[in-house]
Design a protein that fits this description.
39% of the residues lie in helices and 20% in strands. The chain is α/β, with parallel strands linked by helices. Strand 12 (274-277), helix 9 and strand 13 form a beta-alpha-beta unit. Residues 53-380 form the Leucine-binding protein domain.
Length: 401
């Protein structure tokens, strides 16, 4: 069941105060439920002169990947709040932005259903989706109805291959991430690497890039196996992998599977092998999901952007994020924040929230964001995106400088 629920900041705070008065532990602000339309600033008196402009955030808000989705939505909510605080007029009318948060459950069918719903409700722009498997089919729907879509998370190179003028990506794709990891394997003199993927568009895609570049680097791929993005038991796969005596394992997938995989590797004595993965495993949550297993120390993962310390506004932005959403930061929220700000900036330059009017301005952006200065290739790919490798030191994710 989908419904619209408008919440003001005052109402949210009042609800939190009521819970606290009932003796319940106060929780960090949560991303709104599916379909919620959140006004980050209350409408001014005489709101008939205020134009409401809706920007959607789409990601998995339920299931094993919900922590990613909440992080993504938080970035959009922060951007909307910041712009409302700053104030904008379009066509001579004041604007109040609202974030519409939708759940695609990391499922392609639900993702396309959400995309059609957003087209029907005529949102002005979309930030999302998170998974390549949902983003790729949804991108056609947004293109057909003319709504710009900016992803700061989906990395499969196939996303921009159709040439849709409404599709933009502000993060490095898997061609860059897989290659960076394969080059790191060569740098560390690995000779034999096993590859496992979860058969999703993202997981299989980045695994194929890694394997291709690794082979070109003279590394032998000793086995290629696959699981699913719902699995939790990897003992059979890992037992077969151990028999091949690899000095490294690459996993194409998400942290919900990588965490248990690391625990089971420890049980099987696979404690010295490097463990490579893309941005899907490169989260704060991985340390928790792995239960502190020793193989966590061997993880090398890649993210399509700079580390927070090297982002133009990363550290100051992160302080504000943590104050608003303590303990919820994962990976992509700086990019979803920038994606939403990028869309609103294009509207301002076009003096219109009409997608047909501001889309050309979006394509020609040169926006100085928190994560980077964002400009686009004709394909919708970001020009010169950065990529950063990370590892885990005493359970903390740190950039490999």
């Amino acid at each position: 069941m989908h419904y619209q629920l408008r919440l003001s900041v005052a109402a949210t705070l009042a609800a939190a105060a009521m819970l606290a008065s009932c003796g319940k532990k106060e929780e960090a602000p949560a991303a709104p439920a599916t379909g919620a339309s959140v006004s980050a600033a209350p409408a001014a008196a005489g709101s008939g002169d205020v134009q409401v402009v809706k920007i959607a955030s789409v990601a998995p808000m339920s299931g094993s990947q919900a922590h990613y989705g909440k992080d993504n939505a938080n970035g959009v909510l922060m951007a909307v709040d910041d712009m409302n605080q700053k104030g904008m007029t379009l066509g001579g009318k004041k604007v109040r932005f609202e974030a519409v948060v939708e759940d695609d459950a990391a499922d392609p069918k639900q993702g396309t259903a959400v995309a059609q719903k957003l087209c029907d409700s005529k949102v002005a722009g979309v930030v999302g989706h998170l998974n390549s498997g949902t983003t790729i089919p949804a991108s056609k729907i947004y293109n057909d109805c003319g709504i710009p879509m900016v992803t700061g998370a989906a990395t499969n190179p196939a996303l921009t291959k159709p040439g849709y003028k409404t599709t933009f990506r502000i993060i490095a794709n898997d061609d860059a991430l897989g290659a960076a990891l394969a080059n790191d394997a060569k740098k560390n003199n690995l000779k034999r690497v096993a590859v496992i993927d979860d058969r999703t568009a993202y997981g299989q895609g980045i695994a194929e890039v890694f394997a291709k570049v690794a082979k070109a680097n003279g590394i032998e791929i000793v086995s290629s196996q696959f699981t699913t993005d719902k699995a939790t038991d990897f003992m059979a796969i890992l037992t077969a992998t151990k028999a091949e005596k690899p000095d490294g394992i690459f996993y194409g997938g998400m942290d919900a599977q990588a965490g248990p995989m690391l625990r089971q590797m420890e049980q099987l004595g696979l404690t010295t092998q490097k463990f490579f993965g893309g941005d899907g495993i490169c989260t704060m949550e991985l340390a928790k999901l792995s239960g502190g297993a020793k193989p966590l120390e061997n993880v090398v993962c890649a993210v399509g952007g700079s580390s927070l310390s090297k982002m133009p506004g990363g550290e100051e932005w992160k302080k504000r994020y943590d104050a608003a959403y303590p303990g919820q930061y994962q990976v992509y929220s700086p990019y979803t924040y920038d994606a939403a700000m990028l869309i609103m900036d294009a509207m301002q330059r076009a003096d219109s929230a009409d997608p047909a009017v501001y889309l050309p301005k979006l394509a020609e952006s040169s926006y100085k964001g928190v994560s980077a200065t964002i400009t686009f290739e004709p394909s919708g790919e970001m020009k010169d995106p950065a990529a950063t490798l990370f590892h885990y030191v005493k359970g903390n994710k740190e950039a490999i400088e």
